[in-house]
Design brief:
This protein is α/β, with parallel strands linked by helices and 263 residues long. Helices cover 48% and strands 14% of the residues. The two termini are 28 Å apart. It binds NADP nicotinamide-adenine-dinucleotide phosphate.
């Protein structure tokens, strides 16, 4: 299926590894012009090289810490100078630290707020004016199944992803008439460095190894396995595409069925 986004400019945040990288690769496969960012220059260079080798496009990359407003502005300006505009914005971020309510400090809340919610607001603020002008735009936020069903020991994610969901719905209401769609993809257990870290963290208090924790996570999924980042990316890219032109204001979970609720 031709998704109709060849030549569009796509900016994917937090995209040097894991789900963000898989989304960048899937957009490259569709022929998008790509801008990627994260905090670690060496990893970004490697990721950009991988993408170039696989898809024969040269991603534009930049170091950008999503917790820093100035970094976001600088990266956006650099992308605009390079490509002229952003048609597709994919808001991904690093996962907030695990913890129950009493484990978390004021700084933990502040950092997670900046990265998970405020970075989405800031990037959206930068790209929306041009999307309005050209009457075409796609924004897809990567959240978590935590928005449907809070996850054990992930207080920050459970709280702040809900904020992203409310923001996205409000934005979709405001700019639907400008042909800008805003949606969220909520991954379930997906085999990346983040999931590995969460398993290591749970192992510390459970008396089990992190390998056993990963097996337990997989058993908890009706499909009886963990997801791959490319399975999340497939939905993100569809929502970013021309074919998803009448889908907006929604959250779609990609979780092998692990969310137990009907809605
Ligand atoms: N994996 C899962 O099972 C799962 C499930 C539900 C939701 N999610 C969510 O999906 C998102 C992506 O997860 P993932 O599993 O792909 O994680 P990952 O493999 O750990 O990748 C995280 C990416 O974010 C970048 N990053 C981290 N902190 C950043 C910051 N402050 N500024 C800019 N970039 C930053 C990392 O690069 P640098 O460290 O170099 O900056 C890396 O490229 C996370 O928000 C996670 O909570 C994941």
């Amino acid at each position: 299926m031709d998704l109709g986004i060849k030549g569009k400019v796509a900016l994917v945040t937090a995209s040097s590894t894991g789900i963000g990288k898989a989304v960048a690769e899937a957009l490259a496969e569709e022929g998008c012009n790509l801008a990627i960012c994260s905090r670690t220059k060496e990893v970004l260079i490697e990721t950009a090289r991988d993408i170039k080798n696989k898809f024969h496009i040269e991603p534009f990359w930049g170091v950008c810490d999503l917790n820093q407003h100035k970094d976001i502005e600088n990266f956006y300006d650099a992308v605009k100078n390079h490509f002229g505009k952003v048609d597709i914005l994919i808001n991904n971020c690093g996962g907030p630290i695990p913890g129950f309510f009493r484990d978390l400090s004021e700084d933990d809340w502040d950092n997670a707020f900046k990265q998970v919610l405020l970075s989405v607001v800031r990037f959206s603020n930068l790209v929306v004016p041009k999307m309005i002008e050209q009457e075409w735009g796609r924004i897809v936020n990567i959240t978590s199944i935590a928005v449907k069903q809070p996850v054990h020991n992930l207080m920050l994610s459970n709280s702040l992803r809900a904020g992203v969901t409310g923001f996205a719905k409000s934005l979709s209401n405001e700019f639907g008439n400008k042909n800008i769609t805003v949606n969220n993809v909520a991954p379930g257990y997906t085999l990346t460095h983040r999931l590995y870290e969460l398993a290591v963290n749970r192992a510390k208090t459970s008396g089990k190894s992190h390998e056993e924790i990963l097996v337990e996570m997989a058993k908890d999924v009706p499909m009886n396995r963990l997801g791959g980042p490319e399975e999340i990316a497939a939905m993100v890219v569809f929502l970013a595409s021309q074919k998803a032109s009448y889908i907006t204001g929604t959250t779609i979970q990609v979780d092998g069925g692990s969310t137990r609720a009907i809605f």
